[in-house]
Design a protein that fits this description.
With 164 residues, this protein is of the alpha+beta class. It has one domain. Helices cover 41% and strands 10% of the residues. The chain has helices at 41-64, 70-76, 84-91, 101-109, 119-129, 151-159, and strands at 7-9, 12-14, 21-25, 32-37. It is globular, with a radius of gyration of 19 Å. The chain starts with 6 loop residues before the first strand and ends in a 5-residue tail after the last helix.
């Protein structure tokens, strides 16, 4: 049987605040193969707060570094150390600060309040996704520092009726 799996919140593995768990069932045999922490609203609030702080730190970093170190950023978003040649490959398409202008501006375009530029468009997109009825595959990393799974990923999946 697999060991108990905790929630990944703010860069740390932790049990849910309630201490609740859910069984993991093997669909081929219907046998329990382990348990996972059951995330509830207070866990989601902690995860979303951590994600918001993480995003704002990333946004600040991008704003202060127009010569964005792309390979460094990608390395920071991975669980394993990337070989130097892989980091260099991420840097290669961006040899100058000018070539990184779009990547450096992207985080600044994400609305961070309901009255921010682009917020209405994001809300309209969310509304459209909530009515999406075509097959949808959504995948999130269990170690993503910006959108931690399962909280952010599950919230996104819950938004789209056909997500799976």
């Amino acid at each position: 049987m697999a060991s108990h799996t905790q929630l990944f919140i703010n860069g740390n593995w932790t049990d849910s605040l309630s201490g609740g768990t859910l069984p993991v069932i093997n669909p081929a045999t219907a046998e329990s193969i382990g348990t996972v922490s059951r995330a509830e609203r207070p866990d989601l609030d902690l995860a979303l707060d951590a994600a918001q702080k993480g995003f704002l730190a990333w946004r600040d970093f991008a704003e202060r570094n127009p010569d964005l170190p792309v390979g460094f950023v990608i390395q920071g978003a991975t669980v394993t150390d990337l070989p130097g040649d892989v980091v260099a490959a991420y840097d290669a398409p961006f040899p100058t600060a000018e070539s990184k202008a779009g990547a450096a501006q992207f985080p600044l375009l994400v609305p961070t309040s309901h009255d921010a530029v682009g917020a209405n468009e994001m809300l309209a997109t969310s509304d459209e996704l909530s009515r999406w009825n075509k097959p949808t595959l959504v995948a999130f990393s269990d170690s993503d520092p910006v959108f931690p799974y399962p909280q952010a990923g599950q919230a996104f999946c819950d938004l789209i009726p056909s997500a799976g």
